[in-house]
Design goal:
Layout (H helix, E strand, L loop, with lengths): L2 H25 L5 H6 L22 E6 L2 H9 L7 E7 L2 E10 L3 H8 L7 E4 L14 E5 L9 H11 L7 E8 L2 E10 L3 H8 L5 E3 L6 H6 L20 H5 L19 H4 L8 H16 L2 H4 L2 H14 L13 E6 L2 E6 L18 H5 L16 H7 L2 H19 L3 H17 L9 H27 L6 H6 L18 H5 L6 H8 L5 H7 L2 H8 L6 H9 L5 H42 L7 E2 L6 E2 L1
Parallel strand pairs: 1-6
Antiparallel strand pairs: 1-2, 2-3, 3-4, 4-5, 5-7, 6-7, 8-9, 9-10, 11-12
Amino acid sequence: MKKQTWISIIAMSFAVLYSIGLIIAACWKTPSPSEENKANTPVNNVAFSYEEKIFNPDYVHEIKIELPENEWEDLKLRALYKECYDAKITVDGETFYHVGLRTKGNVTLLQSIVREWDRYSLIVDFGAFDTSQRYYGLDKLSLNNNICDSSFMRDYLCYDMMRSMGIPAPLCSFTALYLNDEYLGLYTSVEYMDESFCVRNFGYDYGNLYKPEHMNIAGMLTGEEKDCTLNLSALSGENGVDAADFLGVSDVTVSLKYQGQALSYYTDIWDNAVFKVGKSDKKRLINSLKQIEDGSLETALDTDILLRYFAVNAFVLNDDTYTSYAGHNYGLYEKDGKLSMLPWDYDHSLGCMGAASGSATWTELLNLPIDEPVINVAIENRPVLHALLSNETYKQIYYGYLDELLTSYIENGYVEKKVAETIELLLPYVDKEPADGVSRDRFDAAVKSNLDFCKYRGQSIRGQLSGAISKTTQAQQVAPQTLIDCSEFVSPDSGSLSDLLFPEGVYFEDLVASLVPRINTMATIAILPFETIKDLIFPSSDGGLVQRLEESGRVQDGEALRSEIKQLVLNFIKDVSALLVAPVALGIALIFAFTYGNKRRAAPRKKKKKGGEKNVV
């Protein structure tokens, strides 16, 4: 084979390999948490003693994370991708090697990024790199940074209430967290909902567990989630922001509404399965949703656990769960066709509200009617709750559980005792919080707010149970003078979605500047309407979106925002160009190969005729 032919082949091979490499790089996606979980197989015969270890409530635990500095910086830069890093973890003096460490959260993750905190909420996965490794039986630990909870104890109190009412709930404790010997602050340690949680609560013969989710903000910005459209105009509203409206997603699936038998209708459930599920598992769950719609509640639901769960939720008023506009943050447990719901993520409870409250007053919110215990969503749009409370027998049982909670936890002084014990435990650590952490004054205000909430909410529910206060919204509006006056209530952590994303001194342009280096630009541009991008870059005659955001106080410097959006578009163009290099290089190589090959083809041999001058091929 001639030299020129070899050159052509090598050029073509290089172009093909380069194209394949770029395509793989562009399409590569970090495995979702559910995919990572599916790789873990159950570990039998493990001694489950972690409850007495890391979840011992009598002292503040200590966790030290060791991770190479360059990897920690990479983790922060790629925080939205929630990739798993190999870390060394020391828990209360006992060291574990090759432990998985990744970021967690939605709005809280964005808050950490925009504030440029090192204080991320984290997942510690003991079996990420060694599937046989556990911490005394525990597979995963959630470390919450309490960015929305200045009292550090809303998760702790709400899970304790749930367990006191017989509901399977995560274990919870407090931890002083260090990274490479630097003190990050006081964290809440929570038992992650995975295999060890299920074994502890349901035995080895546990069922399926899901964490339905439709507002995966990080996934939207990295390309993992594509079925959404960012509505930035929602940020300019005066009465808070509906996150579902802002993200352009539907809550129908996470609401557990029956939509038909097609499996594709329920991807927000399947994509967030904790364990691997098959077609038969999916069909069984769908049939349960159909039975709920048909009224066969005893067949489809673990009614007792659900009534207890909804009773506690009606008290704590979590505005970031199934009973709120958000619709997510709960565990969906299924065994033999029966469904129950499990508590998860309560930092937005006990008065830390406002993300969906709009113009409602504290008196209206804290007197929320127990027959319609939902926040900024119609009870009809929460089918499981609606079905149970539409049944008079179940409603009376629900009332009984509300009475039990008030009697055993609120009215007898137990909650004050629990809070006082927790204050004594936490104060030494609150006093040494980093400069950008929670001040003592803010901690004191948040703790007082928790107790005031319990007092007001307890009085209102007691009044509703006795008949002194109406149990429905319409009846309360007719007789507002009967409501408990909560006008003096103050919550230092309460605020709209905009307030959470843009705390004092932080503006939309700051958030965009923080995200631009961290996001998948092609994925982000894909979920931003073209008109929005144009409006952000080129001001219209009436000022457009930027002016509305400036007027709402979300934007301080319109030109800075436009500059960041232009940078986003430039990054997008660069990424598209990088992708186009592959097919262009391949095309050039093919043209070169065939053109150069033809030009260098051996010349035809010339043959003379006997008496002539013509050349013959």
